[in-house]
Amino acid sequence: MDLIVQRPEGLYCPAGNFYIDPWRPVARAVITHAHSDHARQGHQHYLAAHPSEGVLRSRLGDITLQTLAYGEIINHHGVRLSLHPAGHVLGSAQVRVEHGGQVWVASGDYFVSGEDDSNNTCEPFDPIRCHCFITESTFGLPIYRWAPQRAVFDDINQWWRRNAQAGRASLLMGYSFGKAQRILAGVDASIGPIVVHGAVEPLNHAYRAAGVALPATLHATELDKAAIGRALIVAPPSVQGSAWTKRFGDYSDAFASGWMQLRGARRRRAVDRGFVLSDHADWPGLQRAIAATGAERVIVTHGYEAIMVRWLEEQGLQAGAFQTEYDDERLATADAPGDPAPAAETESAA
Ligand SMILES: [Zn+2]
Ligand SMILES: [Zn+2]
């Protein structure tokens, strides 16, 4: 019997009678991470990894939440369940379920790249041996290959430094939860002051409370006028073209996302620079992660399912797909409620 199946409410474990990242309200939800398409309102009981508690509560308010340390095992209706680092955002977890001699792992979103990088704002992805691996595939196309993060941050710092020398503010847009903190942790804070948008600061607070080192950040109103030209401003994509940006005068703008690998996406974004920085696995990373599980069966979710399934079958694996209702980096997944909705990009990335 399959340990995890697809139901209209979401991915479901029949033996344990719980859901994983359900998109409709259920009695028991195991949440892989606090991005809004995975952690939704309205469930009666939530189970998540301990480091995600601050972010989950700041986004979902007063929920009934039970947390587990990474690797801690609970027994639920005879199903052994544990959560393991996914390297995607603070508190992100893979869900391991074991029952009747079978081990299945649902990855949630995860970050592994072909470059052996890890996300330095959370616990790195930990491959778990299993019979069946349910993998995300947001960037499951061979064109997606991330450069070493150090090189990406060198580019970002160089862009910021040049702007500062020219007296122009640098506006770098990225999603409020996850991407913004990766940017903050990766830039050279000696170049100038760093301002963050109001949607980013509560997430920074949760990261700092969880022990993640981030440089000092200012609210826009705290920035000395004379320092505007040296400032780096980190804000969600929804600020593009908004009145909020006017205070920074003649600024240079940039966008940080895995989608920036596509020239079309950069053009449609109409920004000065696109930095390819993703919280998801690239194509070589997906392959490495899948191989490391030793799974003979793989179920693909979250994008490019058909292409990934075909590739897996060519490798001699048993492969299938689940249709999920998760968004991805293109959409408003990580912006705080109440933000003006960023324009959804329609990217047919072939
Ligand atoms: Zn996510
Ligand atoms: Zn996702």
Automatic annotation (TrEMBL):
Coiled coil: none annotated. This is Ligase-associated DNA damage response exonuclease. Residues 328-350 are annotated as: Disordered. It is an enzyme of class 3 (hydrolase). It comes from Ideonella lacteola. Keywords: Exonuclease, Hydrolase, Ligase, Nuclease. NCBIfam families: Xnuc_lig_assoc (TIGR04122). Its EC number is 3.1.-.-. GO terms for molecular function: exonuclease activity; ligase activity.
